[in-house]
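Exercise: predict the fold of this chain.
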Amino acid sequence: MLDLDLLHRLRLVGMLPDPGGESSDVLVEHGYAVRRGERIILTPVGREQAETVARLEHGSDAEAAAQRVYEGFLPLNAEILRACSDWQVRPGGVANDHSDPTYDWAVIDRVVAIDERIGVPVSRLGRSVGRFGHYRPRLRDALKRVEDGEHDWLVSPRVDSYHTVWMQLHEDLLLALGIARGEIGRAHV
């Protein structure tokens, strides 16, 4: 039986540690993934299938809910990208070595403000479209780690950082609404 959750996660990240067993076997048998060492990697056919399955029904309440979140998400996306950039590079193009807590806390405060603005809509969407339910807790967890001094948890791709989860949420919204990356910003409902 096709594990749609695994296929969806694979679509969001491209490759995952191979969970083994029937779930990944079926993905490989259908040509949706290939094994490379201890990882499974999404194929072009798998990408198409995942995008078809992820698209919310046109005209549905779920699609309307996702559209509302997406419209509010876009301006916040620009803000979070700026904050993440500022976290990594200080004015003047100097790498942020995190030795200035005043600077770092100013950036963290901006992220907290953005997080507060996206929190309710994402939570509400998670209640109406189950696959979005994990984003709010993951964003909160990453932000708490940043506030506790774990700098990697804001932007590092090696952990489930705030930026990593934010990018996955963004991609999931695009998939839910059937929006291609080149169409970002256009109205679709």
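Check your answer against the key: Residues 61-88 form the longest helix (28 residues).
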